[in-house]
Amino acid sequence: MSEDLFALARGAMRKAHAPYSRFPVGAALRTSDGRIFAGCNVENASFPEGWCAETTAIAHMVMDGGGRIAELAVVAERLRGCTPCGGCRQRIAEFAFPETRIFLCDPVEGVIETLLLDDIFPRGFAEDSLCGRTGDAA
Ligand code: THU
Questions:
Q1: Does residue 54 have an active-site annotation?
Q2: For the sheet containing 36-40, what is the strand order?
Q3: Among the options 54, 71, 94, 109, which is catalytic?
Q4: How confident is the model at residue 121 (pLDDT cuts 50, 70, 90)?
Q5: Ligand 1 centre from 132 Cα, in Å?
Q6: Rounded to the nearest whole angstrom, what is the distance from the C-alpha of residue 43 to the centroid of ligand 1?
Q7: Does the pLDDT at position 138 exceed 60?
Q8: Residues enclosing ligand 1, CB less than 6 A?
Q9: Which of 61, 73, 93, 125 sits at 20 to 30 Å (Cα–Cα) from 119?
Q10: Mean pLDDT for all residues in the chain
């Protein structure tokens, strides 16, 4: 099941708009109800304003009505085993579970390692963190 996500992520990677970093990335995710979405990174001349492949895939999922991420593959042309960046870990966590599988890939070999979201994003800030806030006026 992970290999189809790898193939889709690699296909997305080939569509990356990454002329500034020259670091094309692709991601593909499967929702818990079986839908699949892919994305690439999209950069622009104001370097920090670009966004990641995982973010594009999540946006496609949200535009299709949302969902929960069961599995997600990420692949980078120039880095074996590229992991989601910190910001994407937060964005993935918004729609995922601690046991969501994250497939790290080699662009040629395919999936080389499977991690859980909880492995790469333990003790993350979440919706229930907001509910537990203190200091509200009574
Ligand atoms: N990038 C991603 O698309 N996903 C990641 O998880 C890591 C980084 C992109 C952002 C930027 O376009 C390029 O890779 C270099 O950082």
A1: yes
A2: 36-40, 25-31, 69-76, 96-106, 110-116
A3: 54
A4: very high
A5: 32
A6: 9
A7: no
A8: 18, 21, 23, 25, 41, 43, 50, 52-54, 74, 84-85, 88
A9: 61
A10: 95
What distances in angstroms separate CA 101 from CA 21, 49, 58, 119, one per listed residue?
A: 27, 28, 15, 10
* Residue entry with tokens 């963190």: 129
The whole-model pTM stands at: 0.94
Q: Which CATH code of 3.40.140.10, 3.90.1530.10, 3.40.50.2000, 1.20.120.340 fits the domain covering 2-130?
A: 3.40.140.10
Determine the 3-state secondary structure of 15 from DSSP.
coil
Domain ranges of the chain: 2-130
How far does the centroid of ligand 1 lie from the alpha carbon of residue 128, in Å?
28
Question: Looking at residue 50, what is its pLDDT?
Answer: 98
Atom number in ligand 1 closest to CA 24: 14
The string of pLDDT tens digits covering residues 53-81 is 999 999 999 999 999 999 999 999 999 99
Report whether pLDDT(135) > 70: no
Report whether pLDDT(99) > 70: yes
> What is the 8-class DSSP label of residue 51?
B
Mean pLDDT of 6-33: 98
